[in-house]
């Protein structure tokens, strides 16, 4: 049975969410209107949030924005490494099940940063170790993330040829935007990201994105395997297992079930 909501708590969280998603500070009247709150209620809640530092009042502008305490929450979230903590048991179970090495990576500029590596028993060490950064466009994890971003966002990340210059292209020739766009379109059509030998010759990876409550890609789950041991006929099966874990981690992060990612 679903527990009833606490109105004040629900309204307070809605105010914080609205402020977090706004481009700048917002007048109290607009907050009340957008959330369907009486103005007196909006002012009372804003005053309480201001008292505790979660909201700041810009008196000259007659607007409200997020306060220092809200920023501290974001820093605390990063310090506690929630994605890694939530993802580690899921990834360990995946590796035990499919018997190939797996990892979790998060975006960092035009790179991916690896935050978890679970090595399968007897598998060789990989370059995708914890705290290693690799170019996003060359990795399955990075391609899974990029394929979920708006096209304009991807184009902004790769505005010119120099964006690809920090590492030579792999065997699939991703060294310009048009080629990257084709790879990302193939990723969307296929339903999972794929990389073959771009990072390490003889090794391939498949990956699926981890999405937040807005459907924005915040990480990717991937497995890496030897081309000699796993042929193309196994890619879709491995990718299905990876997608299941990515969806489970997405649900854990924002506390509810997530639709199947494509």
UniProtKB/TrEMBL annotation:
Please state the span of the N-terminal signal peptide per the UniProt entry: none
User: Any idea what job this protein has?
Assistant: May be an activator protein for the gylABX operon.
Q: Does the keyword DNA damage apply?
A: no
Write down the Gene3D superfamilies for this protein, in alphabetical order. Answer: 3.30.450.40, Winged helix-like DNA-binding domain superfamily/Winged helix DNA-binding domain
Q: Which residues form the HTH iclR-type domain?
A: 6-68
For this UniProt record, the keywords arranged alphabetically read as follows: DNA-binding, Glycerol metabolism, Transcription, Transcription regulation
Domain IclR-ED residues, every copy: 69-255
Organism of provenance: Leucobacter komagatae
**Which PROSITE patterns does the protein's record reference?**
HTH_ICLR, ICLR_ED
Under the heading CDD domains, the entry gives: HTH_ARSR
Which PANTHER family does the record match to this protein?
A: HELIX-TURN-HELIX TRANSCRIPTIONAL REGULATOR, ICLR FAMILY, HTH-TYPE TRANSCRIPTIONAL REPRESSOR ALLR
Q: This protein is called what?
A: Glycerol operon regulatory protein
Which biological process annotations from GO are given for this protein? glycerol metabolic process; negative regulation of DNA-templated transcription
**GO terms for molecular function, please?**
DNA binding; DNA-binding transcription factor activity
Q: Quick check: keyword Hydrolase in the entry?
A: no
């Amino acid at each position: 049975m679903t527990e009833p909501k606490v109105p004040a708590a629900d309204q307070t969280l809605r105010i914080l969410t609205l402020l977090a998603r706004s481009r700048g500070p917002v007048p109290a009247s607009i907050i009340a209107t957008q959330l369907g709150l009486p103005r007196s209620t909006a002012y009372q809640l804003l005053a309480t949030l201001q008292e505790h530092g979660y909201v700041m009042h810009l008196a000259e502008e007659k607007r409200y924005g997020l306060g220092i305490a809200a920023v501290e929450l974001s820093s605390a979230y990063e310090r506690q490494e929630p994605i890694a903590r939530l993802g580690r048991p899921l990834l360990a179970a995946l590796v035990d099940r499919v018997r190939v090495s797996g990892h979790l990576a998060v975006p960092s500029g035009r790179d991916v940063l690896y935050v978890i590596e679970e090595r399968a028993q007897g598998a060789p060490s990989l370059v995708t170790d914890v705290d290693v950064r690799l170019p996003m466009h060359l990795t399955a994890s990075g391609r899974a993330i990029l394929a979920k971003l708006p096209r304009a966002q991807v184009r902004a990340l790769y505005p010119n040829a120099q964006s690809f210059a920090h590492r030579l292209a792999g065997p699939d020739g991703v060294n310009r935007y048009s080629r990257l766009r084709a790879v990302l379109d193939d990723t969307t059509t296929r339903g999972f990201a794929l990389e073959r030998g771009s990072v390490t010759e003889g090794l391939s990876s498949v990956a699926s994105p981890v999405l937040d409550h807005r459907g924005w890609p915040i990480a990717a789950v991937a497995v890496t395997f030897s081309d000699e041991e796993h042929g193309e006929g196994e890619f879709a099966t491995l990718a299905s297992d990876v997608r299941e874990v990515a969806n489970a981690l997405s649900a854990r992060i924002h506390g509810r079930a997530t639709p199947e990612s494509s």
